[in-house]
Amino acid sequence: MTTLEQLQLDNIAKNDYQIYPLLKQRYSPRIFSNQDLTENDVNRLFEAIRWSASCYNWQPWRFIYAHKGSEGYDKIMDCLSEFNQKWAGNAPFLMLAAYKKNTPEGEENFHALHDLGLSLGNMTVQAEYMGIGLHHMAGVDWKKAHEVFNVPEGFHISTAIAVGYYGGELNNLPEDLREQERAERTRKPQKEFAFEGSWK
C-alpha cells in the first residue's frame, strides 16, 4: 500500500456517532492527482450548488474558476496568501467564491454568507461522491482579487478553493506541510457547540 493510500485511510473521520460515509471520508487535501477536471466534472459540481438552499431562493453565490495552465489560474494563485501559494499549485483547478451583499430590493442580505456556505457544502459532498477533494482557503487577498477580476460593486469575494481528484505525491509538499497532512484529524465534542434548551 502506498503512503498516499494509507494517508487517505487515516483521514477517515473517527466519529462518535454513525454519519453518512461521504462525510466521514471528506478532508481538505493539499496534494492532488494530475488528472484535470473535465467540463462535465465542473458542470456536475456547479449543478450541486445550483440546487442548494438559499434565503428566498436569491442564490447570492458567484464563482470565478480556472484550470491549471491558464491565465485565470495564475491570477487566482497570485491572490492567495503566501502560505497557500506553497501548496495550492498542486491543484488542477482553482476557484474564488463570492456572494451578493444585498437583496433584490437593495437591503443588506444578512444571510448571503450563510447561503454561500450552504452551496459550498453541497459542492463538497458532490465532489466527494466523484472522488474529488476540495480545500477551502480563507487565505486570499480579496481586495486584490476584486481589482484583478473587476468584481462588480455589491459583491464580495470570501474564500478560495483548491479542487482536484484525490491522489498525488506527498513529497510534492514542503516537509512542514507533509506533517500537517499526516496529522490526526480532531473536532470539538458536540457538548461544546450544541446546547439543549439554553446556552451553556
Automatic annotation (TrEMBL):
Keywords recorded for this protein, A-Z: Oxidoreductase
InterPro entries per record: Nitroreductase, Nitroreductase-like
Start and end residues of each Nitroreductase domain: 23-71, 82-165
MF annotations from Gene Ontology: oxidoreductase activity
Entries under Pfam families matching the protein: Nitroreductase
Residues annotated as signal peptide: none
Presence of the UniProt keyword Oxidoreductase in the record: yes
Superkingdom classification of source: Bacteria
Residue segments, region Disordered: 179-200
Assigned protein family: Belongs to the nitroreductase family.
Protein name: Nitroreductase
Organism whose genome encodes this protein: Maribacter cobaltidurans
